[in-house]
């Protein structure tokens, strides 16, 4: 490893109106080094990356690559100088195949017409192979499962051959096995002598990769050192890591005798030829908390979308005594089934407050005010950001808003699809406590889809395991641990998922 930094940042500062999102941040990254950047949601991590990439202009500070000052340059110039970013959210082109995406990334802007060059073709295939995309090379992004879309973003970054690589939350929404495959790619960046800046809330994966870790809070520097040193830091523990998620207190296992409010019988869904759900039967009793666990592409989102009336299915879904077949999504929502989708579906141009008000428009004033007050206690950041446009919220803040908006609707049956995506550990703990309280104080029924077993088990009364479009197991959380083991989902080898997640 060379001692001269490849990327050198000093005094970096960015203000958005009155908010100082990044304040006087500085660090060096040498070639062949990975610097992990951690901090709670909204602490300024993505903003640091956008400033380095030139997507946002710094108010102050210096950004040098190989001793050349780049602060204030436009993004294309910074890219040409050897800086690349892997965004958390892919915005793929719809008409290009996976391979064409990689080819485009291989070529400088002016050379797109050379895309037919056999060398480019060969190189693009090599990269597809390296990231594990060879089996879907000729497909369009819209048909790909989540993990493959992430792989494609990684492939594009590799194709551009940057010396400085900024990777924003590569592990979010990935299973342990998928995260390991991504870690391998990032280790590859290090071995090739690139300088890597890595942000992720998966503390375990990040700590295993990073040579050094820098922690931020509210835009400011908190600590820097080895992963171990930083994780032991008092402030980092308090504002970021939080405590362990405690399992709910349960008496002896009682079998609920409440009536089912949701009954799914022999439900099947096909996307073209791909079977997304295969004779799935399950039920949820009144007041119950049911977790459906399963890998990416197992069919969780499809199941929820069928219940919410967003995809067509065979079989029967009953809500109370009502058959939901043929009802519109809006009518189902009015009946009290509210889904908080994985994709968040916020109104990006509206403010935080407007998004929440839309959720609660049907409530009487007093009830709406009380609900809002409770949600602001749950997610204080949303209270202070009421006037902020939803699209400019940080990743985790958007997730909190999506959950809050769903709760604002006061659902009878709340469906949460991967609510932990992109949330800092401390927020998970907070959300976990809120669920607990909600169950104690309201008659709400919850159906949760998760691959994060640590979050899915502690609250659940009952668990279903969904694997390759089928329910393969049902039981209590304690039986789950005995029979499946906590490592269950992690032990399943990462196979390319068969089915694209439903996007409606
Ligand atoms: N254009 C903007 N206008 C106003 N505020 C903004 C804008 N962009 C970002 N912010 C705010 O700046 C803060 C830092 O955001 P940033 O996206 O950098 O956080 P983060 O550390 O990446 O968080 P997360 O872990 O949730 O992704 C957030 O509170 C965010 O709401
Ligand atoms: Mg972010």
UniProtKB/TrEMBL annotation:
Q: What are the entry keywords?
A: Amino-acid transport, ATP-binding, Cell inner membrane, Cell membrane, Membrane, Nucleotide-binding, Transport
**Family according to the record:** Belongs to the ABC transporter superfamily.
Annotated protein name in UniProt: ABC transporter-like protein
Signal peptide location in the record? Answer: none
Q: Which GO terms describe its molecular function?
A: ATP binding; ATP hydrolysis activity; branched-chain amino acid transmembrane transporter activity
Cell membrane listed as a keyword? yes
Q: Which InterPro entries match?
A: AAA+_ATPase, ABC_transporter-like_ATP-bd, ABC_transporter-like_CS, BCA_ABC_TP_C, BCAA_Transport_ATP-bd_LivF, P-loop_NTPase
**Any Pfam family:** BCA_ABC_TP_C
The biological process GO terms on file are:
L-amino acid transport
Which intervals hold domain ABC transporter?
A: 7-243, 262-493
CDD domains for the chain: ABC_Mj1267_LivG_branched, ABC_TM1139_LivF_branched
């Amino acid at each position: 490893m060379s001692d001269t930094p490849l990327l050198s940042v000093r005094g970096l500062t960015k203000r958005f109106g009155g908010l100082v999102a990044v304040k006087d941040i500085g660090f060096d990254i040498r070639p062949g080094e990975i610097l992990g950047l951690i901090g709670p949601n909204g602490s300024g991590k993505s903003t640091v990356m956008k400033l380095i990439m030139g997507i946002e202009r710094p108010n102050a500070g210096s950004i040098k690559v190989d001793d050349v000052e780049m602060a204030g340059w436009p993004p294309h110039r910074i890219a040409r100088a050897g800086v690349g970013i892997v965004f958390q959210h892919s915005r793929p082109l719809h008409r290009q195949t996976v391979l064409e995406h990689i080819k485009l990334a291989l070529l400088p802007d002016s050379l797109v017409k050379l895309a037919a060059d056999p060398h480019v073709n060969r190189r693009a295939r090599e990269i597809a192979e390296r990231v594990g995309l060879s089996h879907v090379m000729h497909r369009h992004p819209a048909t790909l499962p989540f993990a493959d879309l992430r792989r494609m973003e990684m492939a594009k970054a590799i194709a551009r051959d940057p010396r400085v690589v900024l990777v924003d939350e590569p592990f979010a929404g990935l299973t342990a096995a998928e995260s390991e495959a991504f870690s391998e790619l990032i280790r590859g960046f290090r071995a090739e002598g690139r300088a890597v800046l890595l942000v992720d809330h998966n503390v375990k994966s990040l700590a295993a990769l990073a040579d050094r870790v820098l922690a931020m809070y509210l835009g400011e520097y908190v600590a820097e050192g080895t992963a171990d040193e930083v994780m032991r830091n008092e402030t980092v523990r308090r504002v970021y890591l939080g405590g362990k998620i405690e399992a709910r207190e349960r008496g002896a296992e009682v079998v609920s005798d409440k009536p089912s409010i949701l009954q799914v019988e022999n439900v099947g869904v096909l996307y073209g030829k791909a079977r997304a759900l295969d004779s799935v039967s399950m039920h949820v009793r009144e007041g119950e908390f049911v977790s459906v666990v399963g890998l990416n592409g197992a069919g969780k989102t499809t199941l929820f979308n069928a219940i919410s009336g967003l995809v067509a299915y065979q079989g029967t879904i009953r809500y109370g005594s009502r058959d939901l077949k043929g009802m519109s999504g809006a009518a189902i929502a009015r009946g009290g089934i509210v889904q908080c989708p994985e994709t968040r579906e916020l109104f990006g141009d509206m403010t935080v407050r407007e998004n929440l008000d839309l959720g609660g428009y049907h409530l009487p004033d007093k009830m709406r005010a009380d609900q809002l007050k409770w949600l602001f206690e749950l997610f204080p950041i949303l209270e202070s950001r009421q006037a902020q446009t939803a699209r400019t919220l940080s990743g985790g803040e958007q997730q909190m808003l999506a959950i809050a908006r769903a709760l604002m609707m006061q659902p009878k049956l709340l469906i949460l699809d991967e609510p932990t995506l992109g949330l800092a550990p401390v927020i998970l703990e907070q959300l976990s406590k809120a669920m607990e309280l909600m169950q104690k104080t309201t008659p709400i029924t919850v159906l949760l889809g998760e691959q994060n077993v640590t979050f899915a088990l502690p609250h659940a009364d009952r668990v279903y395991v969904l694997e390759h479009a089928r329910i393969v197991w049902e039981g209590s959380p304690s039986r789950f641990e005995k029979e499946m083991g906590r490592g269950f989902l992690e032990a399943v080898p990462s196979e390319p998922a068969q089915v694209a997640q439903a996007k409606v």
